[in-house]
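Why does this matter for the project? Reviewers at the last site visit asked to see concrete outputs rather than summary tables. In response, this paragraph embeds two records directly. Each consists of the residue sequence and, immediately after it, the corresponding structure tokens. Nothing has been edited or filtered.
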Amino acid sequence: MGVYNSGRTAKVNCTDDHLCIDARQWQRDGVLVAGTSYISTWSRSGKELGNIGVKAEQGQVTLSYSWQQNDSEAKRLDYPVGLETTSCHFGGVRYWFTCPTENCGKRVAKLYLSDKYFSCRHCCQLAYHSQREGQDDRARRRAEKIRAKLNWQPGLLNEQCGKPKGMHWKTYVRLMTKYRDDVNQTMLGMNAKMELLTKRIGALCDRL
């Protein structure tokens, strides 16, 4: 299995920057059936970041991978992670991981690799990327979603192409009202950031 090295990257506190395993995805892939063995891999820009071995058993999965502390010898880790199921409204069940961290046991869909074990987001002290955003960042994301609904080219600085064919005028007016509000909020936030940056650069120049 891939070797994970705790000294490779600086510690960050956002879920997007940590490898994770997702019980929902594994359920869709059919790998949570007892007796199934599976290799889970992660890649970015076509480059493999790592992989772990997964063996599904009754009520749990066993994770197998190697961990290396800086330049020390890599160690093999094999440990179980509990599985729970809940009933779905329209039949069937949904799988959840049980956080293996001592004194936790929280039922979660995702576990994240922090330090050398997979744990829930709360035990890893991770925040979602959206929680780190300011109001202007969230406004920009909302505006981009509206552009997608209107079949416009992504990017707030690109032209507005009008109402898409087949869309009701009432819907179009509602979306445009929200879009203008979000764009205005985005621009105000950008201006505030530029002013702050200008002040910091000015203060730095004054010290030189």
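We now turn to the second protein, recorded in exactly the same manner.
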Amino acid sequence: MEFLKYLILHGIFALVVVVALMSMCAYAVLAERKISSWIQNRVGPNRTQLPFLAYIPVVGVMLQRIGFSQPAADGLKFLFKEDVTPGHVKKFYYVLAPVLSLIAALLTCTVLPFGSYWVTDANNKLVEYPIVLANLDIGLLFILAISSLGVYGLVLAGWASNSKYPFLGGIRASAQLISYELAMGVALLPVFLWSSHPGEVSALNLYDIVQSQQGLWLLIWQPVTALIFLVCIFAETNRLPFDMAESETDLVGGFHTEYGSFKFGFFFIAEYAHMIVGSAVFVVLFLGGWNFLPYIPAPWPHNWVGSILTIAWFLAKVFFFVFFFIWIRWTLPRFRYDQVMKLGWNVLLPLAVANFVAYLVFFALFPNA
């Protein structure tokens, strides 16, 4: 009976997390369109309106102007479009590819802490716990492993489409993953050193990494590591200026050229899910998670109100980095393919190795720092 209760509660929690992430993806698309319109001195989507908004005098007009109803219209458009499957594709893998890409994005949320709550123990002492689906001791390795599986969806889509442009997009996606995954892994080694020092916490547990930043954020302590990781996140999520897998100027649409309707919507949502999860991972690793500010104690109380505030503060940091992703996309032009490869192998990887060696020497010289 207890196991059944545990299963139901965690199932509801998982459903809430997935619905919240999907909603954030939908409104991230809206934010992309509105921010790009502001950068280009346009208005952006402001015509779609849900019927009930007309009965809200002032708020309804404001919500229409910011395009509040647009994600619902876009979702319905993808849902009701004719789902055409070309005859020349390998159908099973063609359908599997967008599902695999979205699942990889959603699975990473299972180990990502996004807040904390407090419980009084038997000794009448408050104990803090993370708000997370699964608090794994190897949470960071889990995220790296699962997020790297997302590229299999792109490669599978390129291969199963039986067309040269999608195939080239899939090849580019796999080459880009190999180039930047290595630099990202090496760049994270100083984070392991810091979070496991002085050996009282797990170096791979994301909650412990957040707790180790209660005084000083790792962004301040390890700026080079944060910069390398941020650039690699851009490449891993195929966001401009690293969208080699799509590259509309020379590959039409890249890996999703042969996709339409709801299957294309899966790829579309998966891209924004990867962007949001990547922003959340950066916040956890380098911006102290839900910790308030460096060397400033958190002002929220140790109750359910404080738990809501920790989630809100964490999401505020995540939304800032989502804005940063969008801002970069509409500011920098797309890199050439050879520039992307040179940046990964000739710049980021040597820099990550040098950064790791520097921190090894530092911790050897100052073990109690």
